[in-house]
Amino acid sequence: MDEHQNQVDPNQITTKERKQGFKWVFRLTTSLLAVAAILFIGAFSLNKANVFPFDSASSNVDKTSAEASSDSKEINTTQLSTSNSEEDAAVVEAVEKASGAVVGVKKYSQSQQMFESSQAGTGSGVIYKKESGSAYVVTNNHVIENAASLEVILSGGKKVKAELVGRDPFTDLAVLKMDGKNVENVAEFGSSKDLEVGETAIAIGNPLGMKFAGSVTKGIVSGLDRSMPVDINKDGKVDWQTDVLQTDAAINPGNSGGALINLSGKVIGINSMKIAKEEVEGLGFSIPTSTVKPIIQDLEQDGEVTRPFMGVSTRDLSSISARNQQEALNLPKDVDAGVVVAATKADSPADQAGLEKYDVITQADGNEIASLVELRKYIYENKEVGDEMELTFYRDGQQQTTTLTLGE
């Protein structure tokens, strides 16, 4: 026998050893996986049994935090919803309280044919008093101006004839009187002096010629103590500055004379005008009750508002050229504002005090006066009939003073 026939093939040994090695590795891996599975099952069971307090506490903290966060979101949502619901309920209650006292106002102009009249305009009004069988309505002067006859439409639709008690162009207010037998609601006035910017404001009126009677719009008080220029005699010149409240509650044509109320349902203003320009939106104006109440009292008693009287016709110095200021009026160069006397009425307070044509008034009781509007506002808001007022003026370039007693 050849000796090479008894020799083992190295390749055969290697293959056999490899097979045995694979079997050993497989058995070891299987054993480790089995141990891992046992440990995992054991750990899970211990954790369920709260044997590991740290992990369990951590889990509970995470769960508690999540629950707390969920509860917090639910509370915030609930609070917001509750807040909105409360305000909505307050608005509804306020409207219910005040809307019955807001009426429509129609004016008629007499036509050429006898006993016939045509509707000339519509607006809104507020019933503020019922006394001795009569009801009183406050509205805007421009709503009833030049009316041949007037009619009030109650909130229920009933029409009642009304008569004009008095009107005041300066404040754009008027008072009407009518039979009160069908009147069930009377508005309550609140204080406009206590208002703050941002408070809820609700406008009630009859926009677009009674087409949408009893319309309600909600906004806020956007501004206090605003001044709006008024051209009373329609000559294109400012005659007065009306003090108003500003609101972003929509006020449309026909709303004039309607009520601006607060969340208590009390009237804080009488809606009067609206700036309507393409670049401006949400600017509504209302005459504050601090102005309304004394004016309507005067209108009830006298049919007009009695104001102090000077007896002069004037022009603002600013409307006169610089050349005429120097040559015709002979004013010092540092005098650039004031009121020029154009004429004095015979035997008027101004005439009796010695004022003459071309005198330039610059102060009243020591207060600087730059225009006729400022002079009027100072007199109307600070003086009474019979009060004395010291005027500082320039005549022929010389400063002088005089004292006049205001008439009626």
State the assembly state of the protein chains.
single chain
Architecture per CATH nomenclature, i.e. the level-2 architecture of the largest domain = Beta Barrel
Major sheet attributes: 6 strands, antiparallel, barrel
Q: How many extended strands?
A: 18
CATH class of the largest domain: Mainly Beta
Describe the structure.
By secondary structure, this protein is an alpha+beta fold. The chain folds into four domains: 13-48; 99-179, Beta Barrel (Thrombin, subunit H); 200-302, Thrombin, subunit H; 312-405, Pdz3 Domain, CATH 2.30.42. Helices cover 30% and strands 32% of the residues. The protein has a six-stranded antiparallel β-barrel with strand order 1-2-3-6-5-4. It has a six-stranded antiparallel β-barrel with strand order 7-8-9-12-11-10. Strands 13, 14, 15, 16, 17 and 18 form a six-stranded antiparallel beta sheet that branches. The longest helix is centred in the N-terminal third of the chain and has 46 residues, at 53-98. The radius of gyration is 43 Å and the shape is globular.
